[in-house]
Amino acid sequence: MQQLLLLLAFILLPGDEAEKIIGGREARPHSYPYMAYLLIQNPEGLTACGGFLVREDFVMTAAHCWGRSISVTVGAHNIQRRERTQQRINVRRAIRHPDYNTQNFTNDIMLLQLSRRIRRNKAVSPVALPRGAGERLRPGTLCTVAGWGRVSLSRGTNVLQEVQLRVQGDQTCRNRFRTFTTQTQICVGNPRKRKTAFKGDSGGPLVCNNVAQGIVSYGASNGTPPAVFTKIKSFLPWIRRTMRHLQCLTLAGAQA
Ligand SMILES: *[C@@H]1O[C@H](CO)[C@@H](O)[C@H](O)[C@H]1NC(C)=O
Predict the structure, then answer these.
(1) What are the chain's domains?
(2) Is 115 in contact with 91 (CB distance < 8 Å)?
(3) HSE of 73, CA atoms in CB hemisphere, 13 A
(4) Is 69 an active-site residue?
């Protein structure tokens, strides 16, 4: 049984190197306009996660990326630079799935309501979510994951990386992770290849045929595939309900 590792990263000091996607390459700048970079402030320190725009005022990420204060940057390629395409926005409310379990990482999904709408342009726009629970994601499907996480056990990056990964049969993850749950998780990444999501990629999307199907959740601590992704399709009713509720709260607040 593998030791599990949540794929979030502590921000390291300048000069120190962090980790990211393994076996990938630098993305063409702004070819993933839905990608968001999250900085999370907690008493223990500052951590980073990925996330993705699902609407002009909502970012989706993993529940384990929750923190006291979260800032969102969209339109970025190099997160250490001040690029003109970047929009930095605070989070108004961060709602973790109520059944998120910190022991076995089930229901690892969170919605961030932004304090204002992003300005949509070529570098910034939301990604589609699955339409219904009926759509099946077959093993073998080729998908992409993007992130600013580590490129090896010890090496980091400032520029967005991308990697293509194949959806695996559930058995591949059941054999590796005791906590794998077929109904709400997707098993991703061929165990015979040296390509996977890693520390710092948490919360980023698995995009298959232009639809966000998964959220980077956890993997093996030695950075070998497969990794486990939250299955977005199984949370559609919660996603719709939560967005509607938060929007109502905001409207009520504006009128008060
Ligand atoms: C995760 O933990 C919860 C609460 O203890 C439990 O109900 C659920 O069955 C667990 N799931 C897995 C896959 O271990």
Answers:
(1) 2-11+33-126+235-255 (2.40.10.10), 142-234 (2.40.10.10)
(2) yes
(3) 21
(4) no
The rounded radius of gyration (Å) of the Cα atoms in the chain is 17
Pocket lining for ligand 1, CB < 6 angstroms: 101, 103-104, 106, 179, 181
Q: Which atom of ligand 1 is nearest to the CA of 104?
A: 1
Place of tokens 């900085």: 39
Per the structure block, which two tokens stand in for 222?
A: 């030695």
Chain-centroid distance of CA 151 in Å reads 16
Our answer to whether residue 108 is catalytic in this structure is: yes
Yes or no: say if 62 and 92 are a contact pair by the CB < 8 Å rule: no
Q: What is the pLDDT of residues 60-111, one digit of tens each?
A: 999 999 999 999 999 999 999 999 999 999 999 999 999 999 988 999 999 9
The length of the chain in residues reads 256
pLDDT at 238 over 90: yes
How far does the centroid of ligand 1 lie from the alpha carbon of residue 99, in Å? Answer: 10
Q: How far is the CA of 104 from the centre of ligand 1 (A)?
A: 6
Find the catalytic residue in 108, 201, 217, 234.
108
Is 202 considered catalytic here?
yes
